[in-house]
Amino acid sequence: MLELLPPLNDHNLPWMDTIHPIVVHFVIAMALIGFVFDLIGVLWRRPALFEASFWNLLFATGAIFVVIIFGQVEAGLASPYGAARNILDIHTTIGWSLAGVLSLLTGWRYVLRSRDPEALPLSFLGAGALVSALIMVQVVLGDKLIWTYGLHTVKVVAATREGLI
Amino acid sequence: MLVQAMALAYSPEATPIDQIAGELGPNGLPYALPIHPNLVHLTIGLFVIAIAFDVVGALYPLEKRVFRFLALPITRGGFHDVGWYNLLACCLVTFFTVASGFYEMLTAVPLPGVVSTFGLGSMTTMLWHGVGGVLLLTVITAMTVWRGFQRYLWRRDMGRQVQWLYLLVGLGMFALLGLHGTLGAQLAAEFGVHIAADQLLQAGADLHTALP
Questions:
Q1: Residue B4 neighbours by CB distance under 10 Å
Q2: Per the domain annotation, does A133 fall within a domain?
Q3: B202 and chain A in contact, CB less than 8 A
Q4: For residue range B173-186, what is the model confidence (pLDDT) as tens digits?
Q5: Into how many domains does chain A fold?
Q6: A44 within a domain of the structure (yes/no)
Q7: Which chain B residues are within 8 Å of A164, Cβ to Cβ?
Q8: How far is Cα A65 from Cα B191, in angstroms, rounded to an integer?
Q9: Which of A51, A59, A141 to substitute to test the interface with B, most B CBs within 10 Å?
Q10: Measured between alpha carbons, how far apart are the two ends of chain B, in Å?
């Protein structure tokens, strides 16, 4: 059965390079800018920004499920070592949690928008700030996996295959 | 003789990075995690979604029934709001993306002897990525000005807020961004630039003790 799986390259991946960090652009950028637009929209009274924020949030919520699928596959093909094992566990847990949190936030926003698209309660802004903070923590953890521990980089994969790590 | 002299002129004994090497961490930076790749999330995400929503706004007559079926209240102007504000934010952020990119490229020490999937060496990859970054910033800025003229002057009273040519240029930029991003990814994953583990391995360190 194993021979039916595609061969792995020097990144230990069946495709050219990691896809998770590419798709994750659309969660990080859209969710964070959604909060920034909400903040500016409230402070400067620009309802057009609320509409832009709603669509960004909706897109981020759709994208996070694709991000998780690739994240799980690529995490499974990584060989975390040392503290990277713990970091990957926490990154995975927060990642799945964020899917739920973003879905709830988008559902709440959908109701708010249906009632009055030109107003935004401060409670939603507060929730947006908390979720943005959680996303930033998640980004730092993901960054550590790549930039500190080098998971899926050619050098680390080669060292792992040679039994050096 | 002249060639030999020129070659010598371009072979300094110590590279400039040695002047600050003592202040840098194992990743070759004075801080733990690189800034440029994080700002790249914003540049790429905001640009792609800006153009995508302008495409959705432009094709609105075809989609009306779908959104009605989904019971999702929409306005064409709302899609174009995303197109405009996301591009404006992208333009502002990208100045910092490029600036941090240059700082981190000046402090980059790629792994020696590596040839990328594209068949390029590290210096060639960095040169293309650096020049390409400035080119992309120029195009993004020009497109933001262009988009602003369309929104506030030329097409202010029109349902479709953007010209077809604008969308075409935007879609062309997707290809350029993809290529450019791949060069950046190769600098990290293949050339080990600013990746602590890769640099430590190159220095002969044992990661079990160096990165516990």
A1: 8
A2: yes
A3: yes
A4: 999 999 999 999 99
A5: 1
A6: yes
A7: 201, 206-207
A8: 30
A9: A51
A10: 52
